[in-house]
Amino acid sequence: MAELDWIDAALVSARPQAVAALLRYFRDLELAEEAYQDACLRALKSWPKNGPPRDPAAWLIMVGRNAAIDSVRKRSKQTALPEDDVLSDLGDAEAGAAERVDSADYRDDVLRLLFICCHPDLPPTQQVALALRIVSGLTVPQIARAFLVSESAMEQRITRAKAKVGAANVPFETPGPVERSERFAAVAAMIYLVFNEGYSAGADPDRAALCDEAIRLARLLLRMFASEPEVMGLLALMLLQHARAPARFTAEGETILLEDQDRSLWKQATIGEALALLDKAIRHRQPGPYQLQAAIAAMHARARTADETDWAEVNALYGALERHAPSPVVTLNRAVAVSKVEGALAALEMIAPLRERLDKYFYFHGVSGALLMQLGRNAEARDAFNRAIALANTPAEAVHIRAQLDKLPAERRRREKVISQCRLRALRIVLASDMKEAKLSEHELSFELILAAPAEKLFRCYTDPKLLQQWFAPKPWTIKSVDIDVRPGGRFNFVMASPEGQAFPNSGMFLAVEQDRKLVTTDAVNPETFEPQGPFMIAQVDFEDLGDGTTRYRATARHWTEETKQQHVQMGFEPGWTQTARQLEALAQTI
Amino acid sequence: MLYALLCYNDEATVFAWSKEEDAAVMGRLAKVHDNWKGKLQHGIRLMPTSAATTLRKSDDVVLDGPYAETKEQLLGFYILEAENLDEALQFARELTRANPGGAYEVRPVLLTDQDIPRIG
What is the secondary structure of A276-314 as a DSSP string? Predict the structure, then answer.
């Protein structure tokens, strides 16, 4: 590791202790921060030269304190001390501080610093921002990115928060046991807020880094207060949730539900640490909300597959959590476990009384919908899902519910009905044409080629939009966008662009799809309205895999009238389609 | 001769490493481990001290956290596959009956040299 990296890591890890001790000394947040910054600057000068100090936090506290006293004196226009020999005898500075740093009130410094950040007058977002700035030392731009707000807005938010806590007069005496336990509860909640900011951020790495920061703060707290079972529980809970991070999202950033996650991606070392912490916590026999939530998360972590989850135990743990920290959200979560143990109806009855309080809560309607769907009450399920979509906090949540909605049998039937209707209409057009004696086969253009690629690959190039886009336009023409739903009755929309950039949209429907063998489409029907749109042709491609890595490829275009057929010839049907077929062949050889 | 090398560092700093830094250090260590293949028997990275528990042997008291006294010296260690902390403590108590005095710190193993992903 480069020297600067080492110094950086040492400064980051020493920061909470150092700022906290300086705050006790100066009783002023601004001054403490300034003193710490000053000490860091001196560290950057001194450490590469003199080597790292044995105890970086003690060094920073001592140097920061002396530097700040010096600057306060200068500012107050008293006789400035002779350029203080702060840096000249660092060995002594360290020795003098070491004893105090080990003392018990020093731990309360850090607790106090954290506690100041979660002052009850501050809204949760300000608490988190303040803690990240003061305790973690994140820069304002970093925090602004994590909250998706502008730097100036975040700067203001932090300044306001600082002013509020500055005026709040948090006592600096060593807290009594009751006060200390109140501080623990507030600080734990704030750390969990930091974590949840990151956890709920989806796949965004800037924001997900907040999870690591929260875990680091909890470890710090636990190193100092080693026997607090709820801090163990909090750390275990965050580790268990964080262990699932690699499995929580698809490549497109969509949420993957716990039961659908690939559990082999869960970080086993992280789970191991969490389970070790829970083992420790349980020995204290003082269960609390964090320990119980961690124990529930551990039940999931221990199950190798979703089916192996011990739902009866999860239900029992939620029951205990309801007693320790009653909340409609806990009951809602418990209902999921109840549905697995006692069935969906029992779960639905359990959450019915919550409706009034949770009516604005996305998950309530999501869970209701899922339970109603299990019971086959599809109309009610659809209503619940629609309500959930309206309340979704992120696009990923909405997409997830949309997928649920599509699972509804009624919804599926409705869609299938629409699709079959549109197929009928398409056929009717064909029939109508036929009845007018406009025999399509009489106005047919076709050609055949042997392509040096297996049918399976050629078919894939036709049906995967990303591949289709690469070959479907005769170069130098290009395909600007592709939207296809490859199944009978499914739509296709694509926009072809000329080399000059002029766009030619084209849309229609699939009439027949046979895997690796046949695709039939028509542009005669508008895929959105299912209305006829200037009937032009039915296009068919047939693939016959010859088994030697080549495929007989036949392209056919049937037209309604001789006029449109001739028009197509003029447009260069055969050279154009042959060129794209060769492009198709070339692409298929690369996949 | 078998030698045990005991690894010391500032835990707060090590756990303040970014993922990339951590992976880089682990990758470099793995290369050294490979150079000593055949001679190196085990390499083990422990979980942070926050995951540790200490059994004080004189009065059978279980304390949270690492063994923090400085008047005793590290005289040996065991690697034990145990179901959970209780089982590990049970082993420690049996050892205590055979050998009173001092303490056992029970610390879970984070990973072994075999678990370190090889780079390049």
Answer: HHHHHHHTT----HHHHHHHHHHHHHH-SSGGG--HHHH
Q: Do A27 and A172 touch, CB atoms closer than 8 A?
A: yes
The two three-digit tokens of residue A124, written as one number? 């949760």
* ipTM for the complex shown: 0.86
Chain A residues 231-250 with a CB less than 8 Å from chain B = 232, 235
Complete edge-to-edge strand list for the sheet that includes strand A537-545:
A444-451, A551-559, A537-545, A518-522, A503-514, A491-497, A478-484
Share of residues in chain A with pLDDT > 70 (%): 87
Q: Show the tokens assigned to A470.
A: 């690469």
Name beta bridge partners: A493: A483, A507
Q: What residues contact B75, with CB distance under 8 A and at least 6 apart?
A: B102
What is the Cα–Cα distance from A112 to A187, expressed in whole angstroms? 9
Q: Is A571 buried (19+), middle (13-18) or exposed (0-12) by CB count in 10 A? A: exposed
Q: Give the CB-side neighbour count of residue A127, counting CA atoms within 13 A.
A: 23
Choice among A213-217, B52-56, B110-114 with the minimum mean pLDDT: B110-114
Task: Give the residue carrying structure tokens 């100036």.
Answer: A152
Eight-state DSSP code of residue B1: -
Least confident of A171-180, A280-289, A354-363, B37-46: A171-180
Structure tokens at A159: 């300044």
Confirm if A362 and A391 have CB atoms less than 8 A apart: yes
**How far apart are alpha carbons A223 and A214 in whole angstroms?**
14
Provide the mean pLDDT of chain A. 83
**Amino acid residing at A256:** I
pLDDT of res. A429: 60
* Residues on chain B bordering chain A, Cβ-to-Cβ distance under 8 angstroms: 10-17, 19, 21, 24-25, 47-51, 53, 62-65, 84-86, 108, 110-111, 115
The 3-state secondary structure of A194-208 reads HHHHHHCCCCCHHHH
Q: What is the DSSP string of B12-37?
A: HHHTTS-HHHHHHHHHHHHHHHHHTT
Tell me the two tokens of residue A498: 């000329």
> Looking at the partner chain, which of B48, B63, B110 has a beta carbon nearest the beta carbon of A219?
B48
Q: Do B108 and A13 touch (CB under 8 A)?
A: no
The long-range contacts involving A41-50, CB below 8 angstroms and separated by at least 24 positions, are A42/A67, A42/A86, A42/A87, A43/A7, A43/A11, A44/A7, A45/A87, A46/A87, A46/A90, A47/A7, A47/A10, A48/A3, A48/A7, A50/A90
- Nearest-CA distance B11 → chain A (Å): 9
pLDDT digits 0-9 by tens, A70-88: 877 777 655 444 444 444 4
Residue A402 is encoded by which pair of tokens? 């949309």
Q: Tokens 């403590």 correspond to what residue?
A: B89
* Chain B residues touching residue A222 (CB < 8 angstroms): 50
The Cα–Cα gap between A421 and A434 comes to 19
Nearest Cα residue in chain B from A7: B13
